[in-house]
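Async update (no meeting this week)

Hi team, since we skipped the sync, here's where things stand on the single-chain job. The sequence we agreed to prioritize is pasted below, unchanged from the tracker. I ran it this morning and attached the output directly underneath so nobody has to dig for it. Comments welcome in thread, and please keep replies under the output.
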Amino acid sequence: QVQLVESGGGSVQAGGSLRLSCAASGYQYTGHTMGWFRQAPGKEREGVAGLDGAGSTTYEDSVKGRFTVSKDNAKNTWYLQMNSLKPEDTAMYYCAVDRYPYGGSWPHPWDVYWGQGTQVTVSS
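Output:
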């Protein structure tokens, strides 16, 4: 059974750091595009960071230079390192990975596995 389990969320003050993890089980997603998404109350879900099967990364403009997406293949786990956090980063964060190696910079929301989400709260 395919499963993505997220961890690492929490509450921090502005300027702090958190590292989110997204551990996959049931399948090795070598070559699949994955991404981190977030959704704040009353707002639409937005893509934060994408990691394609070749290891190239893409970031939403507001997080460039502050967030880093990576993968540990041995652990089949993706990470989102978040530094210099701002109150506007407060949201529920979700990881998602393409069910198939479609390619592209971002996963395809119509055919992905989703993590359960982890809350990030940044206070000023």
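Quick observations from my side:
The chain has no helices and eleven strands.
The two ends are 41 Å apart (CA to CA).
Reply here if anything looks off.
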